[in-house]
Amino acid sequence: MCGIVGYVGPRNAVPLLLEGMQRLEYRGYDSAGVAVRQADGRLAVRKRVGRLANLEEALETEPLAGQLGIGHTRWATHGEPSEVNSHPHVDCAGNIAAVHNGIIENYLALRSDLEAKGHVFRSQTDTEVIPHLIEELLKDGAVSRSAAIRQALRQAQGAYALGIVFRDEPAVLYAARCGSPLIVGVGEGEQFIASDVPAILNRVKQVIYLNDGEVAELRPAGVAMAKLDGTPVQPEIKTVTLRAEAAERAGFETFMLKEIHEQPRVLRTMLETHVGKDGAVNLGEVSDLLAAEAAGLQRIVILACGTAYYAGMYGRLLLEAWAGIPCETDLGSEFRYRHPRLPERTLVVAVSQSGETADTLASVRLARRMECKVVGICNVAGSTLLRESDGGLLTQAGPEIGVASTKAFSAQLLAFALLAIRLARLRGAMDAARERELTAALARIPDGIHRVLERQDDVRRISQKYYECYNALYLGRRFNYPIALEGALKNKEISYQHAEGYAAGEMKHGPIALINEFLPVVCLCTPTADEVRDKMVSNLKEVEARKGRIIAVAAEGDATLQGLAQDVIPVPETIEEFSPLINVVALQLFAYYNAKLRGADIDKPRNLAKSVTVE
Ligand code: M6R
After folding, report:
1. Which residue is closest in CA terms to ligand 1's atom 12?
2. Is the dihedral of CA 74, 179, 163, 105 positive or negative?
3. What is the CATH number of domain 3-247?
4. Which residue minimizes the CA distance to atom 7 of ligand 1?
5. Ligand 1 test: best mutation among 612, 613, 614, 615, most atoms within 8 Å of CB?
6. What does the radius of gyration of the chain's CA atoms come to, in whole angstroms?
7. Fold classified for 249-443
8. pTM for the whole thing?
9. pLDDT band for position 378 (50/70/90)?
């Protein structure tokens, strides 16, 4: 949700800003802008509505250069996407420029106060109060610029990551964070700021993760940090292990397709990390936390949003089935406002690809105030979620750039499988032989996914028959019910085809009214032998009787389904509990080709942003 990048050093900032902004564009892409302190002493601002390419074109026509600058890719919250609402925003005199990610909640009060003092605002954004407030605080010359920034931020309520530059301070870049992610990239004789690591991965290997309430002052020679009250903070520099290529498209037509194809490797890496040669699961610090908590655990609450929530629904089924603990899944945006009543010894498992989702984090903080221990399942090292959890499980999917989550989702499913096995073992609900059996089945999943990927052209051909439909229904049962929800979400997110996910047994309680010869009904029908299989076949018969167009994700060689469905996506069989890990890949490909055939911008779907750091 909005991408920030900044540079101070000996080089021309503009190409470095644009490079970082390209890598951050998945955070927001309705407009983009830069502010550059030029050698002639001016603070030049350039903004364009739409994709970053529009700004790049403008900068080619009218180039800017300077050794200090900030850039921003926007996902609009306050004020429509327009040039005037694009960042950077400046004060009245044009001496101070700021880029912002987050929401300044008390901006209306601050704005009217500043307007009463004569400040003239140009945009409808909340952000614009920041440069004006700093300008106001600097008016009588009594405080330094950094003191004015700290004072301004003590007045601002809400969430922010900020990059700020001053016209008459050509070699200092200021950064501040409260609730929205921001990192400092530490180079040799030059410094960067960015919303996340991949943006500056090929420029620096050392980073500082800013904490809430910290302000950093970056000069080419080094970084100084302080809290909002001025207390100095010792910067904690961390070395980044990610490789720059991890954030490249590597010859694939889109990041999403690349990320779909990376899934076998991602799962193998996680299995190598967490499953020993003896077939036993080890989750590092999470294992230690579980060992301390397991015996007395009363309840598990899984908190997440969007796709991660569906992974949580799957996790709940495994945790209840194997570890025998009552478990519930809640949306971050609901849990935080529902005044939850949790029994003592409730363990919270929070799931988030980015680790920066505002609602998930707010729920985690609430749970911590209720004295719950928190396990964070997250794909981004150094993220807020991992830092605020008692134990963190990194999903090792690598940077996920496509806005629609794919490989991070499969990694979350696997994380839950491993977590449930470990907890079941710790509680004595599972023996070592069963653990070995399950981890052996998991070890075969990457090859199974590979087999689905080999059939991507077949999936494309199936999409060709359905991509023009207005609606689609997705059905699954038990472990595949969350996958039906995820498949429908993926489809609507990237192809804009309306899609509903349903528990197949619920179909006759309402959505059956939709079924006619025009409605594609995507049915998850593996494995062939389990408790709900016959029920699923009966549901398909109900669809067939109403002339619905059945697309079945079915086991290779499943003759019953071949006879029943118009189209079959054959997938290799595994045990029911792990079938979601394979089935979801078929649905990702189906959504992908629907979107491609509909001409959608797959990596940057309309209105979405990768990381939802506002409520
Ligand atoms: O970073 P998170 O996993 O916390 O994000 C949660 C949702 O915003 C995210 O899963 C969203 O639904 C994706 N666009 C799904 O593809």
Report:
1. 306
2. positive
3. 3.60.20.10
4. 306
5. 612
6. 25
7. Rossmann fold (3.40.50)
8. 0.92
9. very high
